[in-house]
Amino acid sequence: MKKLTTILLCILAVGVFTACKSTGATSGSEQLPNPIVSYDTLAEAAKVTGFDLAVPDAVDGYDTRTVQVVGGEMMQVTYAKGEDQLLIRKAAGTDDISGDYNEYAETNTVPVGSVSVLMKGENGMVSVATWTEDGSTYAVEAQDIPMSTDAMSAIIEKVQ
After folding, report:
1. In the chain, what's the furthest Cα-to-Cα distance?
2. Domain-embedded: residue 4
3. 54 lies in a domain?
4. Which of 11, 26, 135, 137 is deepest in the core (most CB within 10 A)?
């Protein structure tokens, strides 16, 4: 009787697994579109978002730069050095667009140019900075390689 029950349970489990696999949420041509689209230039990305983003052509220590639009509403420029990334983002509104929701030991509001920037990090180093200006929200995320307040401020001055 135990063997029969075990065999029936195995058959039932295989049937359930097969049914779940064949009715997956996405298959072949039904995949969801990628909300992140890469562009060759900032001007091309600006046509999609409806706003410009001033960023440095290069950041010391980073060897590549990519321009992307996320969900048609946020422009994102990524500087990369191997696996390490520095991201600069802009979107309309005042919501936090940093994508970094970690809790940091240090949080400071630092004046940079004409704006007050919220900088978060640890051990005197900044991992994320956010601010709003002229109806837009900005974020610089340097979690891979945290930087000094002065270095972060220098990048932010180029974005303003």
Report:
1. 80
2. no
3. yes
4. 137
Q: Does the predicted model carry a pTM greater than 0.70?
A: yes
Query: Can you tell me the distance from the alpha carbon of 7 to that of 148, in angstroms, rounded to the nearest whole number?
Result: 64
Distance CA 55, CA 46 (A): 13
92 falls in which pLDDT band (50, 70, 90)?
very high
pLDDT of 134 over the 50 cut: yes
What is the per-residue DSSP string for 51-66?
Answer: S-----S--TT--EEE
- Going by pLDDT thresholds of 50, 70 and 90, the confidence category of residue 10 is very low
pLDDT band at 32 (very low <50, low <70, confident <90, very high): confident
Report whether pLDDT(16) > 90: no
Number of domains into which the chain is organized: 1
Pick from 120, 95, 93: nearest CA to 105: 120
Domain containing residue 114: 34-95+105-159
Contacts of 21 (CB under 8 A, 6+ apart): none
Identify whether 11 is part of a domain. Answer: no
Query: Is 73 part of any domain?
Result: yes
